[in-house]
């Protein structure tokens, strides 16, 4: 069993009090993705759903956590999208759906209704690659564009395929978003050109104007953002804490979601790491919350007993 420093004792005690099955931890990082068929980006007439090892997000609709058993899972809604405020808000009440994965198809069932989505190539990778700089999630005044190795989706607007030549591409429109029915309809449109330079995607429109989008940080990106100081990779005493815009993961210990107000946040634990099975296990209904603050390059987590843990941004 790994020897834990005094630094670790506080959080370990906190988890044990709430009944988390935290086992001894190993240093090898296999991330669980290989054994988790849900991880990736899934698209269909209902929109786009991105699934990580710890949560899911139905773009500008709802998001939450899930408990998995092989190729089946139960999805729990924790937030819904507020179109007026253009932000996520906590979801009051309980809403769950079942999901299954079969090959490249994700089926979500809620009540008597079901939704089928197809896994996109290079799914789950927002970081792009040395060979394709277009792959990722891009945001700007024009909205959000998600690009895989073969397709692009301008959320609630247009989507299609593209042909790439280095950092230049020709976009072909295949569908248009119908706001009245909230679904995609086949609609072949004019070709558009796009270029990538660093973290900027520029799309040239047919009227001669252009739109610029900035690449979003992925889960492993420690660059953070001007609007969310928590985003990044934080280290202390050999431990690593990774935070995205909606979730946090203390590698091979615990992970969860968080609600932020400026430079303060409330972290909610949803899973703990089980080394015997080498996978994340749910909290079984227990609610564990701790507070956190960011000041410069320091993240401080305050435990319920008054003690605190300090991490430094990598």
Give the tags:
314 residues, mainly beta, eight-stranded antiparallel β-barrel, eight-stranded antiparallel beta barrel, 1 helix, 27 strands, 4% helix, 53% strand, disordered N terminus
How does this model look, in words?
The protein is mostly beta strands. It folds into 3 domains: 6-31 and 219-313, no CATH class; 40-119, no CATH class; 136-215, no CATH class. Helices cover 4% and strands 53% of the residues. Strand 2 (47-51) and strand 3 (55-58) form a beta hairpin. It starts with 5 loop residues before the first helix and ends with a strand.
Topology:
Blueprint: H1 6-17, E1 40-44, E2 47-51, E3 55-58, E4 62-69, E5 72-82, E6 87-90, E7 96-102, E8 105-110, E9 113-119, E10 136-140, E11 143-147, E12 151-154, E13 158-165, E14 168-178, E15 183-186, E16 192-197, E17 200-204, E18 210-215, E19 232-236, E20 239-243, E21 247-250, E22 254-261, E23 264-274, E24 279-282, E25 288-295, E26 298-302, E27 308-313
Antiparallel strand pairs: 1-2, 1-9, 2-3, 3-4, 4-5, 5-6, 5-7, 7-8, 8-9, 10-11, 10-18, 11-12, 12-13, 13-14, 14-15, 14-16, 16-17, 17-18, 19-20, 19-27, 20-21, 21-22, 22-23, 23-24, 23-25, 25-26, 26-27
Quick synopsis:
This protein has 314 residues and is mainly beta.
Number of strands: 27
Structural class: mainly beta
Tell me the count of domains: 3
Give the overall average pLDDT.
75
Radius of gyration: 20 Å
Number of helices: 1
Cross-sheet strand order for the largest sheet: 1-2-3-4-5-7-8-9
User: What gross morphology would you assign?
Assistant: globular
Give helix % range: under 10%
